[in-house]
Design a protein that fits this description.
The structure holds 2 protein chains of 2 kinds.
Chain A lengths: L8 E4 L5 E6 L10 E6 L6 E4 L13 E6 L2 E6 L8 E9 L3 E4 L3 E5 L1
Parallel strand pairs in A: 1-9
Antiparallel strand pairs in A: 2-6, 3-4, 3-7, 5-6, 7-8, 7-9
Chain B lengths: L2 E4 L3 E3 L5 E8 L8 E6 L5 E8 L4 E4 L8 E5 L4 E6 L8 E7 L5 E2 L3 E5 L2
Parallel strand pairs in B: 2-11
Antiparallel strand pairs in B: 1-3, 3-8, 4-5, 4-9, 5-6, 7-8, 9-10, 9-11
Classes of the chains: A mainly beta, B mainly beta.
Chain lengths: 109, 115
């Protein structure tokens, strides 16, 4: 039932930059802000980026977010082994519900 | 410090009822929406429902409307998710989460439905 589309997986070597895309529609990303969550194996998701491009306190500045039209992106620069996790985008939809992305698994080679 | 503490794992049989809980602390419970997110093991996150404890306004995903009931008791800062008749397909981890723009998550409650 996910309405935000993400690539299933991406990978990179330590120190590389990887980006994850999130594609939605005018009723969600197009008219509301986007959050990104990191889910390490066996743990609850954690807020990584809010309001499209804001980092909560404690989140390294290696993580950055952007939004344009009905799409958003998460970038991880200087990839580290501890960044190996699942990443999800999320937004409110004007049909009065929340929506998540399909999720992207990041592998550090 | 904001905390959402969920009730423990449950093992139930198909057709049984269940109510799981999520207690909020470290913030004004009645001033923030609180909701539930499902994650089937090995799968992605699914937004289910949300409630505003201040006035009990609720919103449900069409996928879960009629299948579950969200409620809250503001006197004890606790939100609930309830099933009247569980199915095997309800087996999942259920997370409570604060806000329409989720900023905090509970630790998750594993619900296993098996005969």
């Amino acid at each position: 039932q996910s309405v935000l589309t993400q690539p299933p997986s991406t990978s990179g070597t330590p120190g590389q930059r990887v980006t994850i895309s999130c594609s939605g529609s005018s009723s969600n990303i197009g008219s509301n802000t986007v959050n990104w969550y990191q889910q390490l194996p066996g743990t609850a998701p954690k807020l990584l980026i809010y309001s499209n491009n804001q980092r909560p306190s404690g989140v390294p500045d290696r993580f950055s977010g952007s939004k344009s039209g009905t799409s958003a992106s998460l970038a991880i620069s200087g990839l580290q082994s501890e960044d190996e996790a699942d990443y999800y985008c999320a937004a409110w939809d004007d049909s009065l519900k929340g929506v998540f992305g399909t999720g992207t698994k990041v592998t550090v080679l | 410090e904001v905390q959402l503490v969920q009730s423990g794992a449950e093992v139930k049989k198909p057709g049984e009822s269940l109510k799981i809980s999520c207690k909020g602390s470290g913030y004004t419970f009645t001033s923030y929406w609180i909701g539930w997110v499902r994650q089937v093991p090995g799968k992605g996150l699914e937004w289910m429902a949300i409630i505003y404890p201040g006035d009990s306004d609720t919103k449900y995903s069409p996928s879960f409307q009629g299948q579950v009931t969200i409620s809250a008791d503001k006197s004890i800062s606790t939100a609930y998710l309830q099933w009247s008749s569980l199915k095997a397909s309800d087996t999942a981890i259920y997370y409570c989460a604060r806000g329409i723009s989720i900023d905090y998550w509970g630790q998750g409650t594993l619900v296993t439905v098996s005969s």
